[in-house]
Amino acid sequence: MTQSPVQPPPPLPAPPHSAGGGVLRSDVQVRCAGCRVILRVKPGVVEFSCPTCQLPQMLPPELLSRARPQFQQSQQPQPPPQPQPIQTLPPLQQLKPPMNLPRPPVPAHGIDPTKMQLPCANCQAILNVPHGLTRFSCPQCHVELAVDVSKLNRSLTAPQSTPPNPSAAPPLPSPPPPEEVNEEAIDVEREEDEGGTAGETFMDYRPPKLSIGPPHPDPIVETSSLSAVQPPEPTYDLRIKEELERTKALSCLQIETLVYACQRHLQHLADGTRAGFFVGDGAGVGKGRTIAGLIWENWKVGRRKALWISIGSDLKYDARRDLDDVGASCVGVNPLNKLPYSKLDSKNVGVKDGVVFLTYSSLIASSEKGRSRLQQLVQWCGPEFDGLLIFDECHKAKNLVPEAGSQPTRIGQAVVDIQDKIPQARVLYCSATGASEPRNMGYMVRLGLWGAGTSFSDFNKFLGALDKGGVGALELVAMDMKARGMYVCRTLSYKGAEFEIVEARLEAGMEAMYNKSAEFWAELRIELLSASAFLPNEKPNSSQLWRLYWSSHQRFFRHLCMSAKVPVTVRLAKKALSTNKCVVIGLQSTGEARTEEAVTKYGVELDDFVSGPRELLLKFVEENYPLPEEPEPLSEDESVKGLQRKRHSASPGVSIRGRVRKMAKWKPASDDESDLESEGRFHGEYIPSGSVFNAAESADDSNDSDDEFQICQICSGEDERKKLLHCSECDKLFHPDCVVPPVTDIPSEAWICYSCKEKTEEYIQARRLYIAELQKRYEAALERKSKILEIIRSLNLPNNPLDDIVDQLGGPDKVAEITGRRGMLVRASNGKGVTYQARNTKDITMEMVNMHEKQLFMDGKKFVAIISEAGSAGVSLQADRRAANQRRRVHLTLELPWSADRAIQQFGRTHRSNQTSAPEYRLLFTNLGGERRFASIVAKRLETLGALTQGDRRKVTLLSKPFPGCLAGPSLSAYNYDSNFGKKSLMVMYRGIMEQEKLPVIPPGCSTDEPETIKEFLTKARAALVAVGIVRDSVLANGKDVGKLSGRIIDSDMHDVGRFLNRLLGLPPDIQNRLFELFTSILDVLVHNARIEGSFDSGIVDMKANSVELLTTPKTVHVDHMSGASTMLFTFTLDRGVTWESASSMLEGKRRDGLGSANDGFFESKREWLGRRHFILAFESAASGLFKIVRPALGESIREMSLSELKTKYRKLSSLEKARAGWEDEYELSSKQCMHGPKCKLGEYCTVGRRIQEVNVVGGLILPIWGTIEKALSKQARQSHKRIRVIRIETTTDNQRIVGLSIPNAAVETVLQDLAWVQEIDD
């Protein structure tokens, strides 16, 4: 339910009495079901339209009696007035009923004709329930309700039995019978919302408005969405046009980019800065040569300075090659990393013009003296610089506007800063993955999509609008940019490329290793918790320990997953080599850090390759195991004699013989105290600090007796005062003869009485025992740590995957390694042991080693290449026609990159221009649910990547029939779990496991017939979540729940899908996969419910029909002054029906081809609606085992039906005559009315089940009027009409393709009126 509870209004005043003795009825107050304005309805008015939103509606049944007058007026009846909005009502929440009065009823809302009206089972309020919604809460009494459609009529019409009450008011008249719910219409509405089947989403590309230059050497495609948009007319005349036509250095589509980029660079944005251009061509189309052509064109015009910023310094060689290829040999390329920080145009440096080539890292570099490269470049360009500023591979700056909680990167900030400092620069953004999601476009400030003169005041407003628009909104941004002449995006056709997801199931040995590792990590966690308990409070915060623990945990199991795929990788590689193909293996991490640590620890000669997981574990435990501080043993100063000396030195009133010293008299310090006084000593005698020594008084006192008040502590005698012994501990005096045993010799040093001596020895003894206990505890912890390290060393863990693969495929002599690591382990020639050696040789520098390895591969001297992201940026490894090695490439992704941007870049290494064959892609996954964490991250990007890189979301998933001619396979988008639905699913699962709520699905491996299986699973699941730290403060219950594990999951973990999938990796495969299956099952249920409710974003929807015609001439509703591009409103007529003859032919064709089944045929619905039944044709789909459904009015549905659902809702017809009559009747009727019948409350605006339908689409420029359309749609009554939907439609006569926003029929007038605010319309 979307309605929220409403506060009760004040009690109505007593109605006034009329002269005739009757009671005048007061107006009825209701809330509009559409815009929710409070309306005052006059007595007698039952049906009305809201004056604000024009929604037709009627009074709820419980208010009907109040609306009818209690007596007839004598005068003539007047036409009922329209309800008026209440303008001056006080806020409802401020109005409270008097405490002594009964609570007045909650005011009713109006009846929404687009929804069902059902009574609450608890409070009997009539509720507006969307069709298909089965579970909801009553907004009045908050009771959870469920709809049983089969009992709907009975529940609504059952009489309410109440005990008779003579004093009660007469009962209200019974409500009118509710509208019959048409389940068929609900199904059809859902199918229509999802759209038709997707057609070809990539179209062959050729420049639509230019014909200069030769065709591109390879087939180029563009998404069908972008191909539906025409770029502006080219007006720029190239200076190098004749030269290019003569040399044929650039293809027609590269020349097209030059023309539109130069044309765009002549324009200025509203803030005065020069407009920029975005080249979004895919890898291999030839962006480098296009940039070189643009530099050459600007050079000819007189702009002889250019900045070329890229991702690697090696690419300067490619830049030099590209400039030479277009004939610009005279343009110098100056690598900034080889130049000093002084002025570039000074005599010492001498860079007067040409290209300054630098990396993004150089852009943020600075010298020791504080001079930055950015300042150096701005100074070289000068304030009036209007040359080229090229951001090649500009996705490097994508984190300028990061996710909440993180900071923008320095590179992103520097990219914006340099654009600000040279406002007239001709900016060019180049990247195949420059905008994998809208957030990553923050640095593209020169495109003019936000800021002054646009619909969005700043980037955050732009971002918010796109987030609301969903996946399809990104498509519209790309189309918008192309229509305004600021964007091109073409890609090599992947025709002939093969994509396949290969499941690398864990072998028995690996599964045992995985189980053992999961157990070990769980035990290690408990051990660390125990060890941390002994640490004193002043130790560093233990949260640091757990951050390191979980990051190591994740890396460990990621290594393990990679290692599990090594056998399959080697097997596939050897198979490819045996069939005369060559292999490229892609991974992200090389394990170099672990290898170097092992070499530092054990030396350069080792028995075997380093195990990355083992070294990672060893390092973590060695550096982070919580040890108590090692206690220091008792020093000599802490022995009895040492303590005596220390105490004596701290007793200033005792002489070396233990006798009482003569004390100087002292008085408080005065202002004229001398330096000698401040030192606190005088002539060897002690003076309390801050006292004044009085020499005269001291001299006088020296004549007095020193032995005053000196008595023996034992005998209290004053005899032989000069022989009294003074104890340096307790400061008491004793006769030598009084102590037992007596002291015969006068001690020569400090003396301690026997009583004090015993106490001191007790203290020393206790201190020794305490230190011994601390030592014991420390040694025990050290021993535990040593045992853990021994266990780690004894674990059977796999070797570093990179070294393992190189070794199994023939060693470094057979495998070209193009990675970022400096050294590698190589097996000795005798097969015993391995040796660490540098990757480069004397003849080859470390900087050139990757280029050398690449050349060996391209020359056919090595047929296997292993690439990492660090080493392969910009590298071409395709089956190039110019290379000796033209074997077909088999590209294996051992480790899926962390982002889709990187995935696309990696795929682009082996699929580029001028190749003899397209590559085969094999994406390897283990059968572990947790590994999908890494796929989830990439899939989240891949789902939106295509909008600004390779178009349609459904195509760019790369794996569900990714490109024309590709092999079909499971889609990567199926692995996108880190979404809003994923977060909600996780919360539902956690609450179910903790038994706070009931799970909406049966857990895997369980049965409702055996409840104990569910209970057992929940127990195991809780234990598993405890083991990986998701359930905290776990306690085992006693009493009746003995053995039951309880605990809590903190709020931040309840929605953290990433953390769940990370931690899932650390569980044994069995429970890991069962938990993951439970999670995905819940996700499927939530997505299914969202589709029913119309709240699921399905991206671009293809509108399919047998006949699609443009009804009227498109209306121009907006024109962009800068580019001349316009926004158009198109109205199409669709005929979606299937005639009886066509349906019969379909069925006959299936049977003739031998593809039919016994259940194929014509069916009629078991239930009647409005005295009619619905008819369908159903035939079994060979691919899925489900049934395809064909309807007379709508044609083939994209949703397939199971046999059980088919038999529940329909019965098969044996009589073809009956089937024909029913089919033809429904076919004819559907051309005139919707499935709700002639009394549908939306009237002609309702299109559910209509065969002939009008569809309105706003196409062309969308961003300038985005807010206007969003506002108009928000006023719609039906929920599915409020959502921004991007649709694609193609006419059947002239194949005109339009992609734009769908405007419901009921909203067209509102949209046109609102757009008049934006601009005057000239039809």
Please outline what is shown here:
The protein is about 35% helix and about 15% strand. It is an alpha/beta fold and about 1300 residues long.
Structural write-up:
- By secondary structure, the protein is α/β, with parallel strands linked by helices.
- It contains 39 helices and 48 strands.
- A seven-stranded parallel sheet has the order 14-15-13-16-17-12-18. Strands 37, 38, 39, 40, 46, 47 and 48 form a seven-stranded mixed sheet that branches.
- It is globular, with a radius of gyration of 42 Å.
- It starts with about 25 loop residues before the first strand and ends in a 5-residue tail after the last helix.
- Mean pLDDT is about 75; it is low at about 1-25, about 65-110, about 150-180, about 195-200, about 645-705, about 940-975 and about 1315-1323.
- Oligomer state of the chains in this structure: single chain
Number of strands: 48
> Share of helix among residues?
25-40%
Distance between the termini: 42 Å
| Strands in their spatial order, largest beta sheet | 14-15-13-16-17-12-18
Number of helices: 39
Shape call: globular
GO molecular function, one term: chromatin DNA binding
Biased composition (Acidic residues): 180-195
Keywords: Metal-binding, Transcription, Transcription regulation, Zinc, Zinc-finger
Biased composition (Low complexity): 85-98
